[in-house]
Here is the input.
Amino acid sequence: MKRLGLLTLAAFLGASVPSFAQARVPDSQSMAVGIDVGWLFPGDHLEPGPVVNGLWEYYFTPRAGIRTTLGWANPSFERADEDSQRQIKLALDLLYNWEYGKVHPFVTGGGGVWFLQEKDNGDSIGDSENKPGLTVGAGIDYFVTRTATVKFEGRYDWVAVDDGRPDPSGISLTVGVKKFF
Here is the structure.
């Protein structure tokens, strides 16, 4: 009887202690925000240049989710460094990742719209245009804390241009940070 009483007391006290187990990251219904910077290698008649992206992710499962990206680039024309093509990208991608401890490789794919504006010495020339495009990418999230990562990514963006504009399609290589919540 004494043992039963001690076991009951131990079970009661054990049930009242908060759990120290931590939820997995990412998990179902988790989100992340991030920013990355890097280099864009665009198509014909444009020089490589810097690219900046902001992102928001939502996970349906620990492995699968969606990502929205708002990006900016302003590559110079080959013919004149003072002339450029400002590119603002708004994309929605599907996202899938694998878990290997602190390292989570991932792949993405989706589409979006690119807002293109040609510039001459920083001044807009001509009309801006909106063009549809597709994206594919792959990268690695390296967890530096339980909810923060350093992100390395390579992606290819294909943009549908058919009007004689320089082709904004290209490869970008970026590094950034991401915070899960």
